[in-house]
Amino acid sequence: MNTVLVNYVSYFAAQVRGALADLSTEVVDDLTEGLEADLIDAMSEDPKAKSAEDLTLNDLIERFGKPTDYASELRGAAGLETGPIVENQPVRRTVKRSRVVKPSRTVKLNPLVKRNLIAAKRA
């Protein structure tokens, strides 16, 4: 089996599962059970390719459509609502800025600790 084709199929199947992310895990598993094997079998029989090495991700998309469209078809075949399709987009995270708080009082160091800190800086 061509590992490149397997990688393309795995990527496509992962995108389909991602588009079904709003459904429960059990439903997604039921809808996509055996998806990779079915896609590999269908692509291996593709009359365009002389061998599996000739197939590309574009051939997979040309034959089955975009992963989101394929997921929508799976939803429709199962009698589920056809929306919302979850597009795989990067997650944006907001970062709160921390502010520096000045101490309200001065801390006096023990003379022994102070001497050890000074000695450590010199070393």
Can you tell me about this structure?
The protein is 54% helix and 0% strand. The mean pLDDT is 77. It is built from six helices and no strands. Helix 1 (3-19) crosses helix 3 and helix 1 (3-19) crosses helix 5 (67-77). The chain has helices spanning 3-19, 25-32, 35-44, 57-64, 67-77, 111-122. The chain is mainly α. The longest helix is centred in the N-terminal third of the chain and has 17 residues, at 3-19. It has a domain at 3-77.
Count of β-strands: 0
Secondary-structure content class: mainly alpha
**What distance lies between the first and last C-alpha atoms, to the nearest angstrom?**
63 Å
Number of helices: 6
> Helical percent range?
40-55%
Largest sheet features: none
Percentage of residues in strands: under 5%
SSE succession? HHHHHH
What spatial form do the alpha-carbon principal axes imply? elongated
The radius of gyration computed from the alpha-carbon positions, rounded to a whole number of angstroms, is: 28 Å
Report the average pLDDT across residues.
77
Which stretches are low in confidence, meaning pLDDT under 50 for 5 or more residues running? none
List keywords for this structure.
single chain; 123 residues; mainly alpha; 6 helices; 54% helix; 0% strand
In short:
This protein has 123 residues and is mostly helical.
Q: Which secondary structure elements does this structure contain, and how are they paired or packed?
A:
Layout lengths: L2 H17 L5 H8 L2 H10 L12 H8 L2 H11 L33 H12 L1
Helix pairs in contact: 1-3, 1-5
